[in-house]
Automatic annotation (TrEMBL):
GO CC field: cytoplasm
Localization of this protein: Cytoplasm
SUPFAM superfamilies per record: P-loop containing nucleoside triphosphate hydrolases
Protein name: tRNA threonylcarbamoyladenosine biosynthesis protein TsaE
Gene3D superfamilies per the UniProt record, alphabetical: P-loop containing nucleotide triphosphate hydrolases (3.40.50.300)
UniProt cross-references to InterPro entries, sorted A to Z: P-loop_NTPase, T6A_TsaE
Gene source species: Candidatus Flavonifractor intestinigallinarum
Length: 142
């Protein structure tokens, strides 16, 4: 599925639409350049799950946890991780076992640790500054 958005609000709305189809244990694996809109899409996921907290990038904390929605949301930033081994060191399996949604930015850094059924979300810049081309593969919308 390919979606073209023309503002951060539309990118968030695309995330909210996907959230409606997520189930406990869903993993969203993001790829895309710095500033492409991965966190904006994740804000939409959170909104779609009913999370009311402010969603921010977990760049320095590795993972931010958001409770209170239909499902918990665990927002990971793997930019600073060098391997899948480091992912397991931070408790990846524990997060998966908690029955929430794991949204993983920079998933290419830990690709060998992700299950084949992860939902892949690639976000690329479009023709103008705010335009994004979002390609979603795998998961419940297929």
């Amino acid at each position: 599925m390919e979606i073209v958005t023309n503002s951060p609000a539309e990118t968030e709305a695309a995330g909210a639409d996907l959230a409606a189809r997520l189930t406990p244990g869903s993993v969203i694996a993001f790829t895309g350049d710095l500033g492409a809109g991965k966190t904006a899409f994740t804000r939409g996921l959170a909104r779609g799950l009913g999370v009311e907290e402010r969603v921010t990038s977990p760049t320095f904390t590795i993972v931010n946890e958001y409770e209170g929605g239909r499902l918990p949301l665990f927002h990971f930033d793997m930019y600073r991780l060098g391997s899948a081994d480091e992912l397991f060191d931070i408790g990846w399996e524990d997060y998966l076992a908690r029955g929430g949604v794991c949204a993983v930015e920079w998933s290419e850094n830990i690709a060998d640790a992700l299950e084949e059924d992860a939902i892949r979300v690639d976000i690329r810049r479009g023709e103008h500054d705010d335009q994004r081309i979002i390609t979603i593969t795998g998961g419940p919308q297929s």
